[in-house]
């Protein structure tokens, strides 16, 4: 395939190229959609040719997700560049650009304004202002598209929100002009970014001057901070009310306060306290309860010989604190008041005689920190609003997650960002809850904390309760931040908690700390794995240009490291330590699952070893939980339910459930919706190394027996009439309750990926009989719209049956392969499978199997419009089914025999066959067979000029198909409804039914019904007076029918020619 050309050579070529690239990358559609940041439906539209070209945003996401480089990436970008942007529902005018040659300047430190030179630029609507404001707040970071959609449309978003956002962005670009080397706003896979330097965005300029002041001399810092603070014109984005309480606005406002506090201290130290008064007065009015700010104001007033004003300011802030919060002023305010009364100057550095000890114990910030923007914003939000929500309680935040996920890094990063908000100190304590050393005792932790906050060693109580009380007294009303790292449990930290709202506590743990949340009102942040974009950013920061030069390999390394920060850092060290090696070579080494954890051992340092980090979590578990953890990795699928876990462990289901949630609590498993449980790849690799071969073999045998028994139970509920065609499977104690069709269908849908993986694994690793039985059990379910999965299942089963010398097993697998290929429109391949099935059954003397194979051969002939040979196969199949009492086979064959007669023009006989089939299916309880007969009878009624009767039959058919979860049949019935509506002149209904049919057929991968839906849409648009849309759908239908190699293509050519002419 010429992929570079295909990427830009039309709908079908682009779709085929994307599909080929996805398969080369070993990704499912869902996995690629998640990597690319787009919906699954949008990706399917691209691959199936329903969408002509991707949007630029989608193209960049696909390039990153697939790891495309060079010509293939350029071709996809070129295809996206040809797309004309869709208009939002209510387009705005582009911002005026009166001085196009001069770049725009954006100001957000007050009301939002944009200027070119001296002239203001009109920003248009509320949404354009909101979009610009949010991008400006990001500080050059990308803002994810879903966040922008939620922000711009607080109620109902437009039908194509990504297109609408793109249009707003395009209009803003026009008003802002270039952003340096490219546009001011650009797209990345992580979202949209605003590129404006310090000279064009006041927030960037403010931050640049504040950063310069950190390393400047005191006099230089004083000037820089004065210039930085002079840029402020009021509350950030004061005229964009939707952002007023956004966490980033709160954080930016806090940056101003932090800079003002330092400015005031420098002015006081320089003997120029009055220099800070304008800034302090403005901010004190905006922050009426901010004690450090008001303390600086009181000190500046007193230092400027304005003692009465200083005392009045203290009286005012004290009144507000008592009335609003019910607390007395803290030590800084009291000290400022005392000095104002005594006319004392502040001591150098802001340290006053007798003032409390101010600890500053935070460890160094983590180098190369990347991602976690949402979590940092959530911490800002909690810190900004937590006190208001709990006016008398300390703010407690529990950061929980698995080993190596970056809990400490996040806590330390945020603590450094906000340390100026806690002028009375920042305390850090590693509790060693999950460590190679013994966990720190509560008594030892209390002693360390008390000494850190100024209690002399001789005064530290020995009793834990007394120590906890002394700690609460010591930090009462002090603005302090406590970081309690690596806690083993809620009980580990409970005595260490402050008692007043002036303190904030960050706790990190691998435990969920449910007790802190339930009893103390803690806010929990569950820290997951990095996104692909964040993992890539971390690698680039740690490795540098080598990651930029090999983007595809960088994505692969990130995935092999499970996007776990600890693993990524160890992998980056490997890259740095091997200057001659490439990322691609490292990816190849990490691809060996047996070597992966050995490579990620950080040179034997237990604190940097991924495996060691996991082992410390495991040692906290009781033995049954540790045993189950090792067994769960034996499941071939990506996740398990509680029943499969019980089978693996050989324990009762209630015991397995309790143990699974214990593992979730310790962040060794992820619990998902519907009580499904999963572990990331590195944990799986670690768990696989824990068990013995004998125990593993026995556990897998129990699992495969459970899977087969549960699948058989579900199939008996959904398809009772086909029971005789399925092998007998003894029941299992771990089979889930499946009381009705809906429950059975939901179980099969949830388990299907794991069942497919089970068949494939069992076939190739010593359980071939289990593979054959499970494949035969699933046959009828897979027929209902899971053709891709059927190819994998029956292909593996054929290989397994060959190993066993199981002739009937080979025949059944070939039947399954033929049915799947027929559904996918590959008729030649299908005919080959059915012929081989017939031969296998004839050798084995299985007459019923021969009848089913001939039924399949008849279906291929019928699709090729060769109705006489099709009828011959059907009559032979019908004779065999009746002779052997195969009522389900009789019903199915009557359906197809009737449709062959219909296509030969014998409508009366065709209808009679369908009615007989309906009676058979009802008698044996075959709901799917009855639904097929009903919709085929509807087609006959429509041909006889009775569209209303046809519509009623199709509607009854659709209800049955939905009941059994047959998406193939659902698409068939919806197309029938569309054709009946068109015949009755109800064009709008026809459009709706065919559109729904197309969506269902795409999801089911049934190309024939996709083509039929496009043809129906073409006819409906033609009847509605829209020849352009009609041609578009006729062309897509023709492309599909041509690709399927079926005679319907000839009629579509005539329809297309007539519409074009």
TrEMBL record:
<feature type="region of interest" description="Disordered">
    <location>
        <begin position="1010"/>
        <end position="1029"/>
    </location>
</feature>
<dbReference type="Pfam" id="PF13424">
    <property type="entry name" value="TPR_12"/>
</dbReference>
<keyword id="KW-0804">Transcription</keyword>
<feature type="repeat" description="TPR">
    <location>
        <begin position="1011"/>
        <end position="1044"/>
    </location>
</feature>
<dbReference type="InterPro" id="IPR049945">
    <property type="entry name" value="AAA_22"/>
</dbReference>
<dbReference type="Pfam" id="PF03704">
    <property type="entry name" value="BTAD"/>
</dbReference>
<feature type="region of interest" description="Disordered">
    <location>
        <begin position="1"/>
        <end position="30"/>
    </location>
</feature>
<protein>
    <submittedName>
        <fullName>Tetratricopeptide repeat protein</fullName>
    </submittedName>
</protein>
<dbReference type="InterPro" id="IPR051677">
    <property type="entry name" value="AfsR-DnrI-RedD_regulator"/>
</dbReference>
<dbReference type="InterPro" id="IPR010982">
    <property type="entry name" value="Lambda_DNA-bd_dom_sf"/>
</dbReference>
<dbReference type="Pfam" id="PF13560">
    <property type="entry name" value="HTH_31"/>
</dbReference>
<dbReference type="InterPro" id="IPR005158">
    <property type="entry name" value="BTAD"/>
</dbReference>
<dbReference type="InterPro" id="IPR027417">
    <property type="entry name" value="P-loop_NTPase"/>
</dbReference>
<feature type="domain" description="HTH cro/C1-type">
    <location>
        <begin position="18"/>
        <end position="73"/>
    </location>
</feature>
<feature type="domain" description="OmpR/PhoB-type">
    <location>
        <begin position="95"/>
        <end position="196"/>
    </location>
</feature>
<dbReference type="InterPro" id="IPR011990">
    <property type="entry name" value="TPR-like_helical_dom_sf"/>
</dbReference>
<dbReference type="InterPro" id="IPR016032">
    <property type="entry name" value="Sig_transdc_resp-reg_C-effctor"/>
</dbReference>
<dbReference type="GO" id="GO:0003677">
    <property type="term" value="F:DNA binding"/>
</dbReference>
<keyword id="KW-0802">TPR repeat</keyword>
<dbReference type="GO" id="GO:0006355">
    <property type="term" value="P:regulation of DNA-templated transcription"/>
</dbReference>
<keyword id="KW-0805">Transcription regulation</keyword>
<dbReference type="InterPro" id="IPR001387">
    <property type="entry name" value="Cro/C1-type_HTH"/>
</dbReference>
<dbReference type="GO" id="GO:0043531">
    <property type="term" value="F:ADP binding"/>
</dbReference>
<dbReference type="GO" id="GO:0000160">
    <property type="term" value="P:phosphorelay signal transduction system"/>
</dbReference>
<feature type="DNA-binding region" description="OmpR/PhoB-type">
    <location>
        <begin position="95"/>
        <end position="196"/>
    </location>
</feature>
<dbReference type="Pfam" id="PF13401">
    <property type="entry name" value="AAA_22"/>
</dbReference>
<dbReference type="InterPro" id="IPR036388">
    <property type="entry name" value="WH-like_DNA-bd_sf"/>
</dbReference>
<keyword id="KW-0238">DNA-binding</keyword>
<comment type="similarity">
    <text>Belongs to the AfsR/DnrI/RedD regulatory family.</text>
</comment>
<feature type="region of interest" description="Disordered">
    <location>
        <begin position="82"/>
        <end position="101"/>
    </location>
</feature>
<dbReference type="InterPro" id="IPR019734">
    <property type="entry name" value="TPR_rpt"/>
</dbReference>
<dbReference type="InterPro" id="IPR001867">
    <property type="entry name" value="OmpR/PhoB-type_DNA-bd"/>
</dbReference>
<dbReference type="InterPro" id="IPR003593">
    <property type="entry name" value="AAA+_ATPase"/>
</dbReference>
């Amino acid at each position: 395939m010429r992929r570079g050309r295909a990427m830009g050579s039309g709908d079908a070529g682009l779709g085929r190229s994307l599909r080929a690239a996805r398969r080369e990358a070993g990704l499912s559609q869902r996995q690629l959609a998640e990597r690319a940041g787009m919906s699954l439906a949008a990706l399917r539209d691209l691959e199936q040719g329903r969408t002509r070209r991707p949007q630029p945003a989608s193209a960049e996401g696909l390039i990153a997700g697939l790891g495309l480089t060079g010509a293939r990436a350029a071709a996809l970008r070129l295809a996206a560049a040809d797309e004309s942007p869709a208009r939002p529902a209510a387009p705005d005018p582009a911002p005026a650009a009166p001085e196009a040659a001069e770049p725009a300047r954006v100001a957000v430190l007050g009301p939002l304004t944009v200027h070119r030179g001296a002239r203001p630029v009109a920003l248009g609507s509320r949404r354009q202002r909101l979009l610009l404001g949010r991008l400006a707040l990001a500080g050059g970071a990308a803002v994810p598209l879903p966040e922008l959609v939620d922000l711009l449309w607080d109620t109902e978003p437009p039908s194509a929100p990504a297109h609408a956002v793109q249009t707003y962005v395009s209009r803003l670009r026009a008003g802002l002009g270039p952003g340096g080397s490219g546009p001011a706003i650009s797209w990345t896979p992580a979202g949209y970014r605003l590129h404006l330097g310090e000279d064009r965005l006041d927030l960037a300029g403010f931050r640049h001057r504040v950063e310069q002041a950190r390393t400047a001399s005191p006099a230089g810092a004083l000037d820089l901070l004065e210039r930085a603070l002079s840029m402020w014109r009021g509350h950030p984005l004061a005229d964009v009310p939707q952002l007023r309480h956004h966490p980033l606005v709160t954080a930016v406002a806090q940056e101003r306060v932090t800079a003002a506090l330092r400015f005031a201290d420098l002015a006081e130290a320089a003997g120029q306290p009055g220099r800070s008064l304008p800034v302090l007065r403005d901010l004190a009015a905006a922050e009426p309860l901010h004690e450090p700010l008001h303390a600086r104001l009181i000190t500046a007033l007193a230092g400027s010989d304005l003692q009465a004003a200083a005392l009045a300011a203290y009286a005012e802030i004290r009144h507000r604190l008592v009335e609003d919060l019910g607390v007395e002023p803290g030590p800084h305010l009291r000290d400022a008041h005392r000095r104002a009364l005594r006319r004392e100057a502040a001591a150098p550095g802001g340290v006053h005689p007798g003032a409390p000890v101010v600890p500053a114990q935070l460890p160094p910030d983590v180098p190369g920190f990347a991602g976690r923007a949402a979590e940092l914003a959530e911490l800002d939000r909690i810190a900004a609003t937590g006190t208001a929500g709990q006016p008398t309680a300390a703010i407690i935040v529990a950061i929980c997650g698995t080993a190596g996920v970056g809990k400490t890094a996040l806590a330390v990063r945020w603590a450094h960002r906000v340390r100026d908000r806690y002028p009375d100190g920042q305390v850090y304590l590693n509790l060693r809850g999950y460590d190679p050393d013994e966990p720190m005792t509560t008594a030892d932790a209390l002693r360390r904390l008390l000494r850190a906050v100024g209690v002399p060693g001789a005064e530290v109580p020995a009793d834990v309760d007394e120590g906890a009380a002394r700690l609460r007294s010591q930090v009462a009303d002090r603005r302090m931040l406590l970081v309690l790292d690596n806690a083993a449990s809620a009980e580990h930290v409970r005595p260490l908690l402050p008692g007043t709202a002036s303190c904030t506590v960050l706790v990190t743990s691998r435990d969920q700390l449910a007790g802190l949340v339930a009893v103390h009102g803690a806010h929990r942040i569950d820290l997951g794995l990095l996104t692909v974009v964040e993992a890539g950013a971390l690698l680039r920061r740690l490795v540098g240009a080598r990651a930029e030069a090999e983007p595809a390999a960088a994505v692969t390394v990130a995935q092999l490291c499970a996007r776990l920060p600890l693993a990524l850092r160890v992998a980056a060290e490997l890259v740095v330590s091997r200057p001659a090696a490439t990322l691609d070579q490292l990816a190849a080494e990490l691809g060996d699952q047996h070597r992966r954890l050995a490579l990620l051992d950080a040179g034997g340092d237990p604190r940097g070893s991924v495996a060691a980090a996991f082992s410390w979590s495991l040692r906290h578990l009781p033995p049954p939980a540790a045993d189950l953890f090792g067994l769960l990795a034996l499941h071939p699928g990506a996740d398990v339910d509680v029943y499969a876990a019980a089978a693996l462990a050989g324990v009762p289901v209630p015991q397995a459930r309790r143990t699974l949630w214990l593992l979730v609590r310790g962040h060794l498993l992820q619990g998902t919706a519907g009580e499904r449980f999963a572990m990331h790849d590195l944990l799986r690799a670690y768990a696989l190394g824990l068990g013995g071969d004998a125990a593993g073999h026995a556990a897998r045998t129990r699992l495969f027996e459970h899977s087969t028994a549960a699948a058989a139970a579900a199939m008996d509920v959904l398809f009772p009439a086909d029971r005789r065609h399925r092998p007998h499977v003894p029941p299992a104690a771990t089979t889930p309750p499946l009381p009705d069709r809906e429950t059975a269908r939901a179980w099969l849908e949830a388990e299907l990926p794991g069942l497919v993986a089970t068949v494939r694994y069992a076939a190739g690793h010593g359980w071939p009989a289990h593979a054959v039985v499970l494949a035969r059990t699933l046959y009828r379910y897979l027929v209902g719209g899971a053709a891709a999965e059927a190819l994998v299942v029956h292909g593996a089963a054929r290989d397994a049956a060959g190993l066993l010398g199981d002739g009937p097993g080979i025949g059944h697998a070939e039947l399954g392969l033929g049915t799947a290929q027929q559904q996918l429109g590959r008729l030649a391949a299908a005919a080959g499978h059915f012929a081989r099935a017939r031969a296998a059954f004839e050798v084995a003397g299985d007459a019923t199997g021969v009848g089913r194979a001939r039924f399949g051969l008849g279906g291929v002939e019928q699709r090729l419009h060769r109705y006489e040979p099709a009828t011959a196969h059907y009559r032979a199949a019908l004779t065999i089914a009746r002779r052997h009492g195969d009522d389900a086979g009789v019903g199915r064959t009557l359906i197809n025999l009737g449709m062959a007669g219909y296509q030969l023009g014998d409508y009366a006989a065709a209808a009679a066959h369908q009615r007989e089939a309906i009676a058979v299916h009802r008698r044996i309880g075959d709901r799917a067979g009855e639904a097929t007969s009903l919709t085929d009878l509807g087609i006959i009624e429509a041909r006889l000029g009775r569209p209303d009767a046809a519509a009623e039959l199709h509607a009854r058919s659709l209800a049955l198909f939905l009941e059994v979860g047959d998406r193939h049949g659902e698409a068939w019935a919806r197309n029938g409804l569309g054709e009946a509506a068109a015949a009755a002149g109800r064009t709008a209904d026809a459009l709706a039914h065919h559109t729904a049919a197309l969506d269902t057929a795409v999801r089911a991968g049934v190309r024939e019904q996709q083509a039929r839906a496009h043809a129906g849409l073409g006819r409906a648009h033609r009847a509605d007076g829209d020849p352009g849309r009609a041609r578009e759908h006729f062309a897509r239908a023709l492309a599909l029918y041509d690709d399927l190699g079926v005679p319907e293509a000839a009629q579509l050519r005539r329809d297309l020619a007539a519409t074009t002419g």
